[in-house]
Amino acid sequence: MPAAVPPVRPITLAEIEAARGRVYGAAVRTPLVKLELGAGFPDIRLKLENLQPINAYKLRGAANAVAMLSDEDRKKGVWTISAGNAGQGVAFAARKAGVPCTVVAIETAPKAKLERMRALGANLVLVSYEGAWNALDDRAYPGVEGTFIHPFDDDAFIAGHATMGLEILEDCPDATAVICGVGGGGLITGVGSAVKAVKPGIAVWAAEPDTAAPFARSLEAGSPQKYPEWQASFVDGAGGQSVFPRMWERMTPIVDGSIVVTLDETRRAMRLMAEKARIVAEGAGCLPLAAALSEEGKALGNGPIVCVVSGGNIDISTFCEIMAQTAD
Length: 328
Description:
Number of domains: 2
Strand content: 5-15%
Order of helices and strands: HEEHHEHEHEHEHEHEHHEHHEH
Shape: globular
Largest sheet: 6 strands, mixed
Distance between the termini: 55 Å
Strand order of the largest sheet: 1-2-10-7-8-9
CATH class of the largest domain: Alpha Beta
Number of strands: 10
Radius of gyration: 18 Å
CATH topology of the largest domain: Rossmann fold
CATH architecture of the largest domain: 3-Layer(aba) Sandwich
């Protein structure tokens, strides 16, 4: 039986600051670069989490969560549930700590992500997307034992991600808005907690693909909603079948809204990053830029607008196909 889940609470600035000492043992401080788009475009800065050792932001949360485990919990080994990036993060942090790791992984995840989890020493249990989503709610999966590290609904995981928010405002104190892709909600909860604590007036916006946008629907309804028309796509690191009630509690006090973009807009953002900044980013990592450049994104003003490039773990063949599809 999983341990009792603690009540939802705010992530404090003090614990975010404390997390830095643990996170930087595995993760790195990533650059914030200006995307030069020319006249008529907002000032957009890219937070390059694709440059983490696992090429994704999840290493921050995983490093903090694993470092905070008791000796007893470490001895049991750790496990998590992932479409790829969280699994890599936990596997990386577990290997560094000398702890066995199992990942209940979505079987349709990109091959690059599955191969990298295995290369980091993780034992993979492949399941369907629905099976993984249900396991996230149950915090258990048949036959898998050890200390469970939730990939987004975990205070230590979120505090680790929040260190990114401190870096953003240190590098760009005049930022007016931050946009994060949303899947489970751990990234935006962490970044939002940090930037709002330091600069309360800054806007924090979510970005979701129109094939998987339960948070936008939940905001419209005023309560956590399901998204039964969910479709799998190359944006495998964001979007979901529903908003978990606990994550709804975490996100709503600090997130100002959600911008829903099409897959074509996301592809164009992916190509724009590659052409203008030579950045290879996965679909989820391009959602914020697509949102910033959308019609709805114009309401965010001239910026500086920080777009979190959450990861770069995309199969090269898929990336090349997308580049070809968006060629002039």
